[in-house]
Amino acid sequence: MNYSRILGTGSYLPKKMVTNDELSKTVDTTDEWIATRTGIRARYVSNQEETSSYMGYHASLRAVEAAGLSVNDIDMIIVATTTPDKGLPNTACLLQERLGVTHIPAFDITAACAGFLYALSIADQYLRGGIIKTILVVGVDVLTAVTNWEDRSTCVLFGDGAGAVVLQVTDKPGILSTHLHADGRQKDSLTIPTWLPGQRKDDEPAYIHMDGRAVFRFAVKALGQVVEEALAANNMPQSAIDWLIPHQANLRIITALAEKLKLPLDKVVVTVDRHANTSAASVPMALDEAVRDGRIQRGQTLLLEAIGGGFVWGAALIIY
Ligand code: ACO
Known about the structure:
Elements: E1 3-12, E2 16-19, H1 20-23, H2 31-38, E3 42-45, H3 52-67, E4 76-80, H4 91-99, E5 106-109, H5 115-128, E6 134-142, H6 152-155, E7 160-170, E8 175-182, E9 190-191, E10 209-210, H7 212-233, E11 243-246, H8 251-260, H9 272-275, H10 282-292, E12 301-308, E13 312-319
Parallel strand pairs: 4-5, 4-6, 11-12
Antiparallel strand pairs: 1-7, 2-3, 6-7, 8-13, 9-10, 12-13
Helix pairs in contact: 3-4, 7-8
This protein binds acetyl coenzyme *A (ACO).
Acetyl coenzyme *A binds at residues 29, 33-34, 37-38, 113, 152-153, 156-157, 190, 210, 212-213, 215-216, 219, 249-250, 277, 307-308.
């Protein structure tokens, strides 16, 4: 039987970090308000050069190196992003060109903060099917480019970054299962209006709008259900999880899920305090951090989850 195995991980953070205290000089907020409500203390904000393809490129190089491969070993590139460099070509093509592997399929998928889980699931199907041997999956976003820096209810929440994994087909257990969901009825809870100038109403800027409380309520319920679904599908008890690698949107959502899983917080990889919500990059960046600092070891069981605007959400159970 075929499985997909994570061979290597990588990530990239923009050069500029902005703390809550720095933010509170330009918008009516405080470090105390942000940290208490969200757990966030700082975020990284990209400059003009640090686009999705640029950050994705640097994260990818690190993942390929960690995998012990060369870029020429990659057979497919999937990029999860809501903030592509351009309308056309897709970010995966721009990344492919930067990597210099211009003969392989490359495509983007858009599933907001759950984009990496969606991309991972697609890659897993190709690898299990034995169609392709090695896939580069990247989660990257520059949400600060679509953030209204005068809106304190949203601008404190987001940051930029990229995370990447190299997956390869193997006959030993790797990704055990992935579980994806969507509910388009929740489309107005978290949205970025179109950025196509011809379709924009009254020149409305393309900023993130969010009903924070609605997102919070839905996220806690949906994530609780999807992690239970993942465990049940593998007949696995909660106690089998070595590491929870959650979407890094809000420490209170993360804590609620850890409590539901009866997992102590030292079994949960948390980066939201330093990275804020980096959307599709949040899970692969957290994974990379815990792999590189030695917390995550080969053979351990990982539970990944994420939810984003749509709503779209998902989970993956993985033997690392
Ligand atoms: N600083 C100071 N005060 C603020 C700020 C701020 N940055 N933002 C809002 N406030 C004020 C509001 O104006 C309001 O004041 P009022 O009572 O005088 O009207 C008060 O604080 C309470 O505002 P709420 O929005 O009700 O605050 P809440 O306790 O719900 O916290 C938050 C807001 C942190 C956004 C919370 O709802 C949340 O975490 N929701 C989840 C959303 C999330 O995680 N989104 C990330 C993207 S979605 C995703 O990735 C799934």
